[in-house]
Amino acid sequence: MWKFTLFVLLLFYGRCLPAQDTTDLWEKARLNPNLGRHKFIELKLHGGTHLYTGDELKNALNDGYKSMELRMGWQSTGEKEWQRVFNYPSYGIGFYTGDIGNPTILGNPSGVYGFFYAPFHRRKRNHFEAGLSLGITYDLNPYDSTTNPLNDAIGSKLDAYVNFSITGVLKVSNSFDFLYGIDLTHFSNGRTHTPNLGLNMAGLNIGVRYHYNTIRSIVKQQIDPTYEAARRPTFITTPVPPLQRYHEISLYGAFGVVQASSDEKLEAFYGTASLILGYDYRFSHKSSVGIGLDGFYDGSLGWTYQQRYGEVRPSDKMLMGTHLAYVLNIKRFQVRAEVGTYVWKRDNEKGDYFMRLAIRYNIAKYGFLQLGLKTVNGAASDWIEWGGGGKVQW
């Protein structure tokens, strides 16, 4: 932050300083190769195929999908320890729009999201980035039993947008990069509306990235017309200190809302709840592993078992499970991937196993907020978990 503070002083208080002092201050500031904020604008074009598991939409999805993304990102310099751990990542916001198939059935979706790139295999002219994007997509044409009965994948106009990517970055000039890669995109509403098979799209992408420094024009106009700000940062290579490994126990509670299957011809919504006791072991700057006990309540099971067996016991809406977890630690954030199995349930309505993909934000030493997606018997959405909890470390 010191370089930004110094610039503010130069810009707003320079007139209050003697001319010689202002000159000396600027000469010291301009020696910093990372003066300013290094940003980029990125345009990507996508194309690929649908990984569809239903029946009704096969003809509507035959031609695959085409889409475009526009992103604005911030490039880190390694000033913070976590930035050096992740090999100088970038992060930002993006906009998505695409043609995913027959628009009469599927709509014309667009979306907004946040993204994070973690570089790997860095070379002088080329490197690769693992990317994760999370946001919302809108302008979908959802299922309607009368006007749109074929759409068994999407039950709501507003869905979650999730994208995983591996991107190659080829440096063309000091300002431009050529991008190429593969990615997987998922639309789903977490069973808040049914049907909800979701849409999964896998394909290739190409694009271009333009680098710039926001301080350049301001300095030229206000301070030094000869100054040329570096468009790309000089990475700070201070070694990362060793991690003090630790153990953590957490208690997490969450709630959600689901709709009964569209096959039931119901408009009713039901509550869900999750209570998880977890143990994590932090063994590196990036990673933790863990285990946990899971308790679930799904109110929609009451209707299901009433129709199937003619009676519902209070315990029928509850399930017990256990899970294994891998955790990616990014500053205050955690990306959690968990896979588990049930140890108690009435029958096989929920299948044999479940998964959870979640984002956790640590708001204090002993507390956190978490947003996650629980699945049923694989990748099909079961419900979205909104919650938080407490933890202790030693």
Short description, anyone?
By secondary structure, the protein is mainly β. The chain has helices at about 1-15, 20-30, 80-85, 105, 215-220, 300-310, and strands spanning about 40-50, 65-75, 90-100, 105-120, 125-140, 160-170, 175-190, 200-215, 245-260, 270-280, 285-300, 320-330, 335-345, 355-365, 365-375, 380-394.
Structural topology:
Layout: H1 2-13, H2 19-30, E1 38-50, E2 65-75, H3 81-85, E3 90-99, H4 103-106, E4 107-120, E5 126-140, E6 159-171, E7 176-188, E8 199-213, H5 216-222, E9 246-259, E10 269-282, E11 287-298, H6 301-309, E12 318-330, E13 333-344, E14 353-364, E15 367-376, E16 380-393
Antiparallel strand pairs: 1-2, 1-8, 2-3, 3-4, 4-5, 5-6, 6-7, 7-8, 9-10, 9-16, 10-11, 11-12, 12-13, 13-14, 14-15, 15-16
Helix pairs in contact: 1-2
Task: Explain what you see.
The chain has helices at residues 2-13, 19-30, 81-85, 103-106, 216-222, 301-309; strands spanning 38-50, 65-75, 90-99, 107-120, 126-140, 159-171, 176-188, 199-213, 246-259, 269-282, 287-298, 318-330, 333-344, 353-364, 367-376, 380-393. The two termini are 32 Å apart. The strands form two sheets. The chain has an eight-stranded antiparallel β-barrel with strand order 1-2-3-4-5-6-7-8. By secondary structure, the protein is mostly beta strands. Residues 9-17 have low confidence and may be disordered. The chain is globular and about 85 Å long.
